[in-house]
Structures are given as structure tokens and as C-alpha cells.
Specification:
With 325 residues, the protein is an alpha/beta fold. The chain contains ten helices and 13 strands. A hairpin with a 3-residue loop joins strand 11 and strand 12. The two termini are 27 Å apart. The structure holds nicotinamide-adenine-dinucleotide.
């Protein structure tokens, strides 16, 4: 067994830099051997202080270098597939920041590539699965400690979003975390999505429903509501209140931070360390390409729901391949 994982990080932007610093300074049993960014200057800045790491502007050159055991993809979502497919073909594990890809059709191609390779190599960066509070709720659901789970009431508050942010971004970039979170907490697929609009904040982007309420149902009928507010200015907050038959469990309610990096720092650290240790054991244990595909299918329903407030839109999923059972 390899004792130290040699990692290539593709994309040295905001999140990529966060992961590079994390692996460089806090992770055990891994070192960065390649940083890839189409913007060479960004890669050169990010590589400073990392002994022996090479800079690339082309991912394939890094992949062919023979100097990497695993890949972390942190480019914009529409570019993930072009890194994932050759990495799967090469048989290397890859942690792909969310979203897996921007739509279910391309996500399904990634699933099919894994089925073809008969190997689960992709892990999607749904870090909430590594948050202590989320794990507490999931454990309560799994153990039936308080009886059946009846409802989840969530909040997702962002201090600001870019000018280009639209209703599609609300779903694909923001609520995508709740889609996966709900699937993780309940162990069920989301079956439908609806959106309710209400009073808008005076700070809302033009044409954007803000705040919005996203409603979901799951296979067994767990009712989910997610209140989003993405021009909140006062900070970042993510909360979940799980109502069981005999108790409720609330997480994140007293945490308002400047951004997601501070709110989920421990979750990101646990996510990456567990991924490294899994890779060294030859297995990928976190959210799979199937989870990424299912989240993409939820997002497609969500975007239609944003465009048609008040309409319940069903989530359409292909049959789950045996590889993910
Ligand atoms: N899990 C989370 O909480 C979380 C939070 C933020 C971002 N993300 C995800 O991380 C990813 C990156 O987001 P970001 O905010 O860091 O974006 P960013 O724009 O800050 O960084 C993207 C980087 O990719 C580089 N890049 C673009 N095309 C490339 C190519 N062909 N090859 C190599 N590099 C290329 C860019 O030059 C840039 O440095 C997205 O998928 C995003 O959704 C996840």
C-alpha cells in the first residue's frame, strides 16, 4: 500500500486555493505534486511553498506525468467532465467539487464511464455529509432513536452573490447542497420540487426570487422546506431542523460566519482527510457519481420549479446501476 498520496489539484481559484492550503498545511499522508490552472499565474501563486510540486496549464500533461495518484477537481462545474472522464479511464480516484457536472445528461455520462470501468473512482464534494451536526441527524435517522423522521426545515443564507447570479444559480450552486443533504439525511431520493415566492428583500438581484422557499418531498413523504436568502449582507448561515416523532434536532442555528469556508472548515478537513485515507486503502467512500447524478436531476426539476413558482415538478431518475447498490 502507498503510504503517501500524490495529489494533483486542478483549478487554483477560490475553492481550489482553500483545498491547496488545506492539503499543504493540515492533511496527513498526502502531498500536492501538481497544480493545474489554465491561468498559469494563478497556478504559480498557489504552488509557492509546496516543495516538488509542478505547475501545469493542461490537465492531460499532469495526468500523463506519472507523478500523481489522485486528482482534486476545482474548476467551474461545466469543465468537470473533461477532467473526470480521462481520470476514470486512467483508473485514478478523483474528488470533484460539486456539481459533478451541470446537467443530468453529462452526469449520466460520468456514471456510465464508471460502470464501464467497473469502479467507483469519483467522489463529489458534498462536504455537508462530513459536518458533525449533519452526521448527528443522519445517525438519529439511521438508528431510529427518536422515531421516524417527519420533516426537515432548512435555511441557506448567503451574504452576497455575483451580479450574474440567476434563478438557475440559486438551484445549481446554492440549493444543490440541500438536495444532496436531504438525500444523505433521509437515505431516500427526492421525488419532487416546488418553489414559493414571497416578499422580496430590497437588496434582491433583478428578476431573482429572494428570499425563496424551496419545497421537496422524498420517497417516503418526508416534507422538506429550504428557505434561501442570498443577498443577506449580514453573513452566511446554514441550518437544519429535523422533526422526528419524539424529538427534534437542530444544527447550525447559532452559527453566522462571513462565508462558507468558516462555517464548514471542519467538514472540509474531514472530507479531504477521509478521502485521502480511503484512496490509500484503494477505496472511495464518500458521495458517488450516482449521488452527483441524482443531485443534477433534482437541480433540473428545481430550475423548472423556479421558472414556474407554485408548480410541483417531479424529479426524473434513470435506474440505479448495480455498481452503486
Ligand atoms: N463545496 C463547496 O462548498 C464549494 C464552494 C465554492 C465553490 N465550489 C465549487 O468549486 C468549483 C470552483 O469554484 P470557485 O469558486 O473556486 O471558482 P473560481 O472561478 O474561483 O476558480 C476556478 C479556477 O479554475 C481555473 N480554470 C478554468 N478553466 C480551467 C481549465 N480548463 N483547466 C484548469 N483550470 C481552469 C480558473 O482559472 C480558476 O482559477 C465549482 O465547481 C464550485 O461550484 C464548491
Amino acid at each position: 500500500m502507498t503510504q503517501e498520496l500524490r495529489v494533483a489539484v486542478v483549478g487554483a481559484g477560490r475553492m481550489g486555493t482553500d483545498h491547496i492550503i488545506r492539503i499543504r498545511d493540515r492533511m496527513q499522508r498526502a502531498r500536492i505534486t501538481a497544480i493545474v490552472d489554465i491561468d498559469e499565474e494563478k497556478a504559480r501563486t498557489a504552488v509557492q511553498g509546496i516543495e516538488g510540486a509542478q505547475v501545469y496549464t493542461d490537465f492531460v500533461a499532469a495526468l500523463e506525468s506519472g507523478d500523481i495518484d489522485a486528482v482534486v477537481v476545482v474548476t467551474p462545474g461545466f469543465l468537470h467532465e473533461q477532467v473526470l472522464l480521462p481520470t476514470i479511464t486512467k483508473g485514478l480516484p478523483v474528488l470533484c467539487e460539486k456539481p459533478l457536472t451541470p446537467d443530468s445528461e453529462s452526469a449520466w455520462r460520468v456514471v456510465q464511464a464508471e460502470v464501464q470501468a467497473d469502479a467507483k473512482l469519483v467522489q463529489v464534494g458534498f462536504m455537508r455529509r462530513y459536518d458533525a451536526g449533519y452526521r448527528e441527524i443522519q445517525e438519529a435517522v439511521r438508528s431510529n432513536a427518536y422515531g421516524e423522521l417527519l420533516a426537515l426545515d432548512c435555511e441557506h443564507i448567503n451574504p452576497a452573490v455575483p451580479d450574474s447570479y440567476t434563478g438557475r444559480n440559486l438551484i445549481d450552486d446554492t440549493v444543490v447542497h440541500e438536495f444532496d443533504g436531504v438525500r444523505f439525511l433521509t437515505g431516500e431520493e427526492v421525488t419532487s420540487v416546488a418553489v414559493r415566492a414571497g416578499k422580496r428583500t430590497p437588496l434582491a438581484k433583478e428578476g431573482l426570487v429572494d428570499p425563496a422557499q424551496i419545497l421537496m418531498t422524498t420517497e417516503s413523504g418526508v416534507r422538506v422546506s429550504v428557505n434561501t436568502h442570498v443577498a443577506a449582507e449580514y453573513g452566511y448561515a446554514v441550518t437544519t431542523r429535523a422533526s422526528f416523532v419524539n424529538a427534534h434536532v437542530a444544527v447550525g442555528t447559532d452559527q453566522v460566519t462571513p462565508g462558507f469556508e468558516e462555517r464548514f472548515v471542519d467538514a472540509y478537513d474531514t472530507e479531504i482527510q477521509e478521502w485521502i485515507d480511503g484512496c490509500l486503502q484503494g477505496e472511495v467512500t464518500g458521495p458517488t457519481a450516482w449521488d452527483g447524478y441524482a443531485a443534477a436531476a433534482c437541480c433540473e426539476a428545481g430550475v423548472r420549479a423556479v421558472e414556474n413558482p407554485g408548480t410541483e415538478v417531479p424529479v426524473k431518475l434513470n435506474a440505479k446501476p448495480a455498481l452503486y447498490s
